[in-house]
């Protein structure tokens, strides 16, 4: 039986609880240090609270320890890892191979920051002792299928949320512009900035467009294909997102994945519990730059969001007329006062809020920039967000109860849907019941009450109905039985795949270039022991990135603007991206269908060297 996991992000304890309550089978959360999101760190004590809550439902907790490490940080990183292990985490998500060398008693997952793109890379990591590999987001279904077939490790893929335009863990664009390194958890997201596309003469071909900003991923319609390909974990991006996002998106994918599993008897979800949200989930109503399946069906244009890197939300319609006080839409809609709107116009993107609605006429709080023909999107649905804020969905585990009354007292035995059992009893003389049928009905009602526990008692068998049981006694014993059942669930051993490092595994190449991020002695020893002979000094450690390739990507600006070199582009080269004083030469590898950015000398006006 294959266990299929819905993996949700958690910024902190409260968002982790929301992820669990709304249906996640696992959550991933950052520790106090060395996580790829510095703003989403948590002390070990907080993560221990997450573990205690999640494990009630069989939900796993994966801790992110996925930045590169310097030599003088190795001891601190190991201490952090062991603190997380002591807190009870089920796995560590790591980028730096130094952690593979620390003999940590925990399951290790190779982060997407390791830029896994080929079957050979995934096979090596699986053979080297990683229980799971987390794939690069730019892969197609065929590529994912080939990787699943090649590696002994479990395969995890991102299915929703923001996409890094460069290969994860191989991008140095942020560091080259701001000094803030994405490989150290501090990416400044320069890919979301407006850029100019220029040629060698300095002529501007495209001005101030978000040329590197790609739309967000939504593979909710493709989950069945991924299950059939061999994927076991479906990951939602968003450790910096708010709780409303977590509730909505997790509930959406829980429903979608349950439908997929219902049609595949050989698969089952990786945790237990029923979550029935008290709203209708819709990911278009949470933060989104627009849906994309990216390169799931192969590399193609139409994946970028040139006009804005911000959340545009759901499309509402098109403006057909603008008057001094309002505008008219081309079709009926469900807009309401308080909604937030985003307009995509030839002059850019503008936003406003809705003050009043009358049919297809909408009165905004300001009309500046709104013109006929503008596409209208709702990026804040006031009523929907209010429903999310008020939502109090409980996750419950189905259970059964057997109530037995005798002359000497009462006992209640309970069992959950996984066969975990517990029992409570109270010794107390009981009198004969005057009405055994009414007594049985009362006991059945009492046994089915579960209060604020994690259980929902669905079936009750009552024995000894001839003995009258006071309602207070029945309630006391029921509470004790359910408390005991929870304790038994938490005592159950957790299965982990803690694998030794296999020194016979061979790295796919004898050389690692500067982009391979070998930044400490333990990582270097790891690769050399696995057959690597040459290791270039890490680009992440270079004092200057001028002349270096700072991004490699499956995304291609030429393809996106209809100027693919394979298809006979009329646009000559070389081409450059410029923002302020920063300039990057674009290189195109048509054989691999990849684009790279190479850092050119800074031309900042405030730099005396470049005046």
Please explain how this structure is put together.
It is a single chain. With 611 residues, the protein is an alpha/beta fold. It has 4 domains: 2-163 and 215-285, TIM Barrel (Alpha-Beta Barrel), CATH 3.20.20.70; 167-208 and 542-611, no CATH class; 312-390, Beta Barrel (Elongation Factor Tu (Ef-tu), domain 3), CATH 2.40.30; 397-491, no CATH class. It has 13 helices and 30 strands. The strands form 5 sheets. It has an 8-stranded parallel barrel, surrounded by 5 helices. Helix 1 (13-21) packs parallel to helix 2 and helix 4 runs parallel beside helix 5. The radius of gyration is 28 Å and the shape is globular. The protein starts with a strand and ends in a 12-residue tail after the last strand. The model is unreliable at 604-611 (pLDDT under 50).
Question: What's the structural blueprint in terms of helices and strands?
Answer:
Elements: E1 2-10, H1 13-21, E2 26-30, H2 44-55, E3 60-65, H3 74-86, E4 91-94, E5 107-110, H4 119-127, E6 132-134, H5 141-150, E7 154-161, H6 173-178, E8 195-199, E9 204-209, E10 216-218, H7 223-229, E11 233-236, H8 243-262, E12 267-269, E13 274-275, E14 291-292, E15 314-322, E16 327-329, E17 340-345, E18 348-358, E19 361-364, E20 375-380, H9 382-390, E21 395-406, E22 409-416, E23 421-427, H10 436-448, E24 455-463, H11 471-491, E25 511-512, H12 521-529, E26 534-535, E27 549-553, H13 557-560, E28 575-579, E29 582-589, E30 594-599
Parallel strand pairs: 1-2, 1-11, 1-12, 2-3, 3-4, 4-5, 5-6, 6-7, 7-11, 10-14, 21-24, 25-26
Antiparallel strand pairs: 7-10, 8-9, 8-28, 13-21, 15-16, 15-20, 16-19, 17-18, 17-20, 18-19, 21-22, 22-23, 27-30, 28-29, 29-30
Helix pairs in contact: 1-2, 1-8, 4-5, 10-11
């Amino acid at each position: 039986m294959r266990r299929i996991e819905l993996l949700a992000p958690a910024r902190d304890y409260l968002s982790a609880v929301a992820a669990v309550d709304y249906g996640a089978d696992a959550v991933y959360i950052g520790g106090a240090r060395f996580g790829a999101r510095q703003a989403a760190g948590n002390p070990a004590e907080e993560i221990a609270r997450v573990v205690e809550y999640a494990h009630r439902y069989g939900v796993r907790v994966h801790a992110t320890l996925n930045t590169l490490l310097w030599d003088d940080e190795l001891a601190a990183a190991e201490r952090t890892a062991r603190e997380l292990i002591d807190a009870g985490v089920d796995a560590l998500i790591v980028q730096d191979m130094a952690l593979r060398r620390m003999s940590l008693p925990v399951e290790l997952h190779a982060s997407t920051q390791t830029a896994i793109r080929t079957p050979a890379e995934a096979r090596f990591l699986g053979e080297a002792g990683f229980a799971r590999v987390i794939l690069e987001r730019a892969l197609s279904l065929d590529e994912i299928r080939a990787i699943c077939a090649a590696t002994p490790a479990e395969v995890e893929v991102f299915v929703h949320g923001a996409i890094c335009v460069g290969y994860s863990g191989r991008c140095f664009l942020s560091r080259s512009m701001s000094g803030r390194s994405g490989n150290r958890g501090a990416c400044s997201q320069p890919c979301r900035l407006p850029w100019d596309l220029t040629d060698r003469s300095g002529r501007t071909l495209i001005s101030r467009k978000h040329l590197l900003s790609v739309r967000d991923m939504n593979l909710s319609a493709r989950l069945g294909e991924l299950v059939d390909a061999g994927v076991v974990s479906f990951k939602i991006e968003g450790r910096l997102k708010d709780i409303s996002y977590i509730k909505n998106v997790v509930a959406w994918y829980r429903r979608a994945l349950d439908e997929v599993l219902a049609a595949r008897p050989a698969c089952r979800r990786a945790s237990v519990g029923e979550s029935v949200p008290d709203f209708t989930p819709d990911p278009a109503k949470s933060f989104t730059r627009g849906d994309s399946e990216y390169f799931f069906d192969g590399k193609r244009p139409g994946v970028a969001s040139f006009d804005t890197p911000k959340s545009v939300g759901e499309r509402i319609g098109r403006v057909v007329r603008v008057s001094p006080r309002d505008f008219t839409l081309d079709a009926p809609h469900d807009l309401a006062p308080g909604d937030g709107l985003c307009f995509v116009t030839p002059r850019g993107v503008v936003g406003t809020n809705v003050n009043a609605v009358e049919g297809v006429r909408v009165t905004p709080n300001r009309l500046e920039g709104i013109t006929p023909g503008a596409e209208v999107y709702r990026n804040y649905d006031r009523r929907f967000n209010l429903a999310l804020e008020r939502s109090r969905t409980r996750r419950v585990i189905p259970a059964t109860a057997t109530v037995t009354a005798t002359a000497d007292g009462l006992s209640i035995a309970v069992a959950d849907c996984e066969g975990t059992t517990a029992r409570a009893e109270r010794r107390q003389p009981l009198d004969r019941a005057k009405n055994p049928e009414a007594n049985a009905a009362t006991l059945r009602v009492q046994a089915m009450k579960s209060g604020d526990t994690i259980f929902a008692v669905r079936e009750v068998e009552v024995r000894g109905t001839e003995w009258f049981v006071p309602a207070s006694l029945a309630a006391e014993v029921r509470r004790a039985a359910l408390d005991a059942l929870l304790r038994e669930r938490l005592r159950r051993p957790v299965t982990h795949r803690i694998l030794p490092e296999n020194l016979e595994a061979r790295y796919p190449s004898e050389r690692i270039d500067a982009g391979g991020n070998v930044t400490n002695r333990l990582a270097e020893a790891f690769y050399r022991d696995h057959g690597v002979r040459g290791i270039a000094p890490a680009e992440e450690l270079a004092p200057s990135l001028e002349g270096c390739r700072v991004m490699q990507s499956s995304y291609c600006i030429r393809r996106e603007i209809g100027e693919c070199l394979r298809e006979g582009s009329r646009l000559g080269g070389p081409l450059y991206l410029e923002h302020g004083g920063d300039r990057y030469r674009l290189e195109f590898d048509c054989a691999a269908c990849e684009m790279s950015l190479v850092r050119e000398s800074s031309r900042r006006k405030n730099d005396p060297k470049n005046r």
